[in-house]
Amino acid sequence: MAKFLIKSKAETDPAYGCPPDKRPIQEHIKKGVINLDKPPGPTSHQVDSWIRRLLNVKKVGHGGTLDPKVTGILPIGIEKATRVLQLLLEADKEYVCIMRLHKPVKMAELERVFEEFQGKIFQTPPMKAAVKRQLRVRRIYYANILEVDGKDVLFRIGCEAGTYIRKYCHDIGEALGTGAHMLELRRTKVGPFTEDKTLITLHDLTDAYHFWIEDGEEKFLRKCIQPMEFAVRHLPRIVIRDSAVDAICHGANLAVSGIIGLDDNIERGDTVVLMTLKDELVAAGESLCSSLQILDAEKGIVVDTQKVFMERGTYPRVWGKT
């Protein structure tokens, strides 16, 4: 858990911006993300289309495509929040998988091979993958065997983004000398999206939407749709003063003078998010310094702004004035 460091003191003007959980319901929807429990059957794009029609919005997107048969967490972004999902591309993932061995294996041998397939591993994407098929390194944080039933092995795996679990099972089978394939797969984590109380089904979303349309009851829809800020909770943050916000919205890089505080786990080159004092997401960028360097700096540019999410004019313009 990151510790928040205070660099300077400032207050926010309540006349500008809005805390994410206080947005009017229409704005809440259009700047919302959904922690969706995808069922088996539909493609990820079919899920997008269904939600777009249900909510009567123009744009819906997902973060990290799941194959039709795969279930579990499918982050969904609505309207303006679709771009925020780009920040999940490098987020760590977790899966629960059933692997079927082609021949029985002793438990000791199975555990030995699983131990070998942790840390840095080499993978070549499968033939059907939508990426270039070249050998690459991926990190496996943990791979824990949960249960073995005959030739079926249930395990939980935490891994770097871009790891192919189907290929992982195949390679385990090769190392065992028995052969193996992935039988079932469920994704249980994508960055800050986990199997907690925010996880909902398509039925939950349908019911919540009709409660709002037919009875004017918002609370169920607000439980199903999270503010887009939810999707960046895995990234280190820098909180900026009101006077710096509009300049950032116009693409300016972040200077030391605009910083109120920051998380203590920032390293040079990290992707960081820039937040207001009301916890609104302004932008994301590359940190040019570590947390301690930023804390000690008295002047200079410390973040290269790369993606802006807040609309210009949300906060007053104070830059460029004489």
TrEMBL record:
Annotated GO MF terms: RNA binding; tRNA pseudouridine(55) synthase activity
Superkingdom, natural source: Archaea
UniProt domain PUA: residue ranges: 236-310
Alphabetic keyword roster: Isomerase, tRNA processing
Keyword tRNA processing attached: yes
Positions of the Dyskerin-like domain: 1-48
One record GO biological process: box H/ACA sno(s)RNA 3'-end processing
Enzyme Commission code(s) on record: 5.4.99.25
SMART domains listed in its UniProt record: DKCLD, PUA
Family per similarity comment: Belongs to the pseudouridine synthase TruB family. Type 2 subfamily.
Job description of the protein: Could be responsible for synthesis of pseudouridine from uracil-55 in the psi GC loop of transfer RNAs.
Name of protein: Probable tRNA pseudouridine synthase B
